[in-house]
Amino acid sequence: MRRVLKLLRPIPDFLAAIGRRAGFFWATCAAVPRTLRRPGTVVEQIFFVGSVSVILIGVGGLFVGLVLALQFYTALSRFGATSSLGGLVALALLRELGPVLTALLFAGRAGTSLASELGLMRATRQIDAMEVMAVDPMRRVVAPRFLAGVISMPLLAGIFSAMGILGAYLVGVKMMGLDSGVFWSSMQHEVSFRSDFVNGLIKSAVFGAACTLIAVYEGFHARPSAEGVGQATTRSVVISSMAILALDFILTSFMY
Amino acid sequence: MRQSAALEVTTGLFVVLGIAALFYLATKTTDYRSIPGGQSYVVRAYFNNVGGLHVGAPVQIGGVTVGRVVGIRYSMKRYQAVVRMALRDHADHIPSDSTASILTQGVLGQQYVGLSPGGAPTFLKNGSTIHFTQSAIILEHLLGQLLTHGSRGKGK
User: Fold this and answer.
1) What is the mean pLDDT of chain A?
2) B11-28: burial string, b at 16+ Cβ within 10 Å, e else
3) Can you give the pTM of this predicted structure?
């Protein structure tokens, strides 16, 4: 009997972990309306999570586009269907690769810095000091970062996809000699505004919310030591990467 | 003060860049411009078989898109599929005896409705029905016919 209970032990632990995160999510959402009255803090955070990631995301998108176009071109040329290269690349980028890869890069670039920043604030007792001064840390620290993540991610995903399409253009048209009119028209024919572009935007906004929330939660609840900050940072990357991939499957199965 | 101004400028740059990228994607790579805008009117056509026609497929005259398929349903009264099409108002002079046929773009392409204009002096209007239709060509049926014909030929 005791053994069975011991085996079942992880289940309530897991549920409790989910419950704590859901409560944190709720508290963050409740703090958002107050934060909107102080847009300055949000702008500052958009700089720290969004602007600094632009170069990484842009270069990443460019190379993903270059590689995609190269691979698709060699595969399509076997069937003599290279004219649909543009449509294929654009679909892949707008539906899947743009939102998902941007979110993964974002978790590595901005998520870690959020988690370690908040972990350090916790370790140096800045969060406790705020509470003592009757400043709500949810409102001053957590909510602006959450909002900044939700706003930045679709913009970053847009930059990623646009750079990817530029890369595909360079390979397809400039390198392989595809006609540029064929390249663009196959794209406009394949890609639908409502079901591909808008769904991609929704996806990336959801990923942005999940990513920043996980990073901020792990940092906020880090053990107040140097080791704890390190662990929180690692955990934030691992959990957000898994959450992004799982959420992507769920969202995709609803959307398409 | 200087530092915060620089921060705001960089943030602004990022936001402008992001929105520009999204705008570029929406207009340049999607079918945003061909979404039916403005006024349209709906006509109906009955088909024996719609094949792989989807809602949202284009309706074309002479290769130019003049509307979209907005609904495909089964008609209990006629045991046929009824396809509703929204045609744009600027294409409102289509003779009422036109023929609607379900065609395929290329060998494996998407299916669409092609209208071939007739010669009647009256025009299609909102709610009217296209009487002359040609169903989708199902490749399997065609193949089946070909095979049975072929074997019969051999038997003779």
Assistant:
1) 90
2) beebbebbeebbebbbeb
3) 0.75
Give ipTM to 2 decimals. Answer: 0.78
Q: Do B29 and A94 touch (CB under 8 A)?
A: yes
Q: In what order do the strands lie in the sheet with B40-47?
A: B129-130, B40-47, B80-88, B64-75, B58-61, B111-116, B99-104, B132-134
Rounded (5°) CA angle A185-A190-A195: 135
Report the candidate in A235, A31, A25, A18 with the shortest Cα–Cα distance to residue A130.
A31
The rounded distance, in Å, linking the Cα atoms of A121 and A255 is 39
Q: How far apart are alpha carbons B63 and A123 in whole angstroms?
A: 68
Which residue, among A99, A136, A122, A115, has the nearest Cα to A245 in the 3D structure?
A: A99
**CB within 8 Å of chain A, chain B residues 18-77:** 18-19, 21-22, 24-26, 28-35, 56
- The predicted pLDDT at position B156 comes to 43
A82 DSSP 8-state letter:
G
The pair of three-digit structure tokens given for residue B139, joined into one six-digit string: 């490749």
Most confident of A138-147, A204-213, B98-107: A204-213
**C-alpha span between B18 and A186 (Å, rounded):** 24
